Fold this protein.
Amino acid sequence: MVLKKIDKNYKIFHFDFGIFYFFEDFIIGEMDDGADITFENCRELIYTIKKNYKLNVFGYVSNRINSYSVNPLDYKLINKHLGNLISFAMVCYDNTCQKSIDIEKRFCSRTVKTFNDLDDAIEWTSYYIKRERLIGALKSS
């Protein structure tokens, strides 16, 4: 992972299916090649996310450097367990990946945007999170 435009202060978590970089406002996930991602095998990741982000809103950046499978039906469970996850940025590097994302988007109730550059995805996610926090602050005042 090459990061140009963001703070280098982050935590790294390794799981059986990939590596995750936890920043203040978002997570970057890079799945292992050939991994099969389901809600069941993400329980430890979800626990780690809840422990680190608590009730703070955050975004997820999927840096799809490898080929892997995702059960799109599990997005409903993820949405239920991570109510403070408000955006998905998907970084694709080929047409096969783009086709997979087009299917996954149909099952995700969060804001989803596709990119072909990691820095662009990070920039959009940071902006989106800050904007949503500002809107939330204005509504509560």
In short: The radius of gyration is 14 Å.
